[in-house]
Amino acid sequence: MKRILLATAVALTLSACSSVSLNKADNPGGMTPIQSQKLTSNFTRKGIKLEFDCAFGTGAFGMTDAMCSKTDIKAIEVTAYAPSFGNSENNRENAFRVAEMRAKAKLRHFIQEDVSSSQTKQVIAKNIEKANDRIKQRISANEEVNMTDDEATKETNFAIRENTNDTVQTLTETVRVNAAGILRGVRAIDEKIVDRQTVQVTIRWDKDSERASEFFRNKWRVQQ
Predict the structure, then answer these.
(1) What is the pTM of this model?
(2) Residue 159's domain spans which residues?
(3) Residue 223 lies in a domain
(4) What one-character-per-residue DSSP string does 7-32 give?
(5) 117: closest CA among 180, 173, 179?
(6) What is 48-92 written as a DSSP string?
(7) What is the pLDDT of residues 102-134, one digit of tens each?
(8) What are phi and psi of 42, to 5 degrees?
């Protein structure tokens, strides 16, 4: 009796393994359909971070961040990303440069941007006349036409005119966002690879860097 039960258990185990192997054959490599894939992120996305000067109150509870009285902005950090499209040194450096430019553009859009919106409706109508001429009686070129009074009163040639109207209506909405300006004292403080083909650059502006930029601009001013 024990041998029969053991043989049954082994048979069930083999059948289960065979079922798994058939599923792998139907789906080689375990590929997932595109519509079933999910967007995932291996890193925390960052944007714009503001730092304030705090005027702390008196007492033991005055040193907590919740009790901070934000009086003035002392720094701002902006993070942007860019794809490298490869793992070469040249692609990496280009990606860092693009990410830095995107971060500066994001900073400028945060400071000031001009937004304009417009809508345009266009209607296009196309009229087509299709002619279909049908002749009941065919007459050769050299043949004389002889008609009786009854034949003359009958309809011998007629044409059918079919009109086709194609109408296209288009609605176009355009939103333009423009930001332009001069950034002084902005520098890249962090550059790193966050994914296999994605880089991250963080730029920072603070009061000290702006004063340094002003100092060197006055020291090495271009002579007009």
Answers:
(1) 0.59
(2) 42-214
(3) no
(4) HHHHHHHHHHHHHHHHHHHHSGGGPP
(5) 173
(6) EEEEEEE---SSGGGGSGGG--EEEEEEEEEEEEEE-SSSSHHHH
(7) 999 999 999 999 999 999 999 988 887 776 665
(8) -95, 0
